[in-house]
Amino acid sequence: MCQFYFIAIYLGYAYGSAPIVAFNYGAGKKAELQNVLKKSLKLLLGTGIVLLSIGVLFAGVLSGLFVGYDAQLYAMTVRGLRFYAVSFLLSGFNIFGSSFFTALNNGMVSAAISFLRTVVFEVAAVLILPLFFGLDGVWCAITVAELASILITIGAFSALRKRYQYL
Predict the structure, then answer these.
(1) Residue 118, exposed/middle/buried by CB under 10 A (0-12, 13-18, 19+)?
(2) Do residues 111 and 134 lie in contact, with contact meaning Cβ atoms separated by under 8 Å?
(3) Which CA distances in Å does 167 have to 52, 88, 91, 98, 151?
(4) pTM higher than 0.90 for the full model?
(5) Is the dihedral of CA 15, 20, 25, 27 positive or negative?
(6) Contact predicate 107/113, CB 8 Å
(7) What is the three-state SS of the chain?
(8) What is the pLDDT of residues 80-138, one digit of tens each?
(9) By C-alpha distance, which of 92, 113, 111, 117 is closest to 157?
């Protein structure tokens, strides 16, 4: 449940910044498009560090809000949230990347990032990691999926930088 609140921050920023990206791209304002991207990446990194820190440091408090009624479930959830929190450092970049390419009118790249992130990589990680790491593998699945997705997102930004001139 905590994940929804944390991810909502990234979704709000991605959806809110998309019209700015689209306007600057459409208006041919390359310098401003570059400025928006650079500031966004810095903001996402800072936010990711804060959310990761909150997830790790306050795992007990956050878990207690939802499963404080059962000691064994609480202990398992605290441990899991600490693993899961690493994904908060990465997910913002992937969410923003998908939204950024939507704003540049490249729905195929946006859809690829989103689909791979939320379906292919998550399902694969949930099926494979528990075989090697047990329950901890389930908790780490999202982080592994986000890590795989960030490689796709970085690849897309790198491959399309000359076409859209944002770097």
Answers:
(1) middle
(2) no
(3) 28, 25, 21, 17, 17
(4) yes
(5) positive
(6) no
(7) CHHHHHHHHHHHHHHHHHHHHHHHHHCCCHHHHHHHHHHHHHHHHHHHHHHHHHHHHCHHHHHHHHHCCCHHHHHHHHHHHHHHCHHHHHHHHHHHHHHHHHHCCCHHHHHHHHHHHHHHHHHHHHHHHHHHHCHHHHHHHHHHHHHHHHHHHHHHHHHCHHHHCCC
(8) 999 999 999 999 999 999 999 999 999 999 999 999 999 999 999 999 999 999 999 99
(9) 113
Residue given tokens 């939802």 in the structure block: 66
Amino acid at 66: F
Residue pointed to by tokens 């920023």 = 13
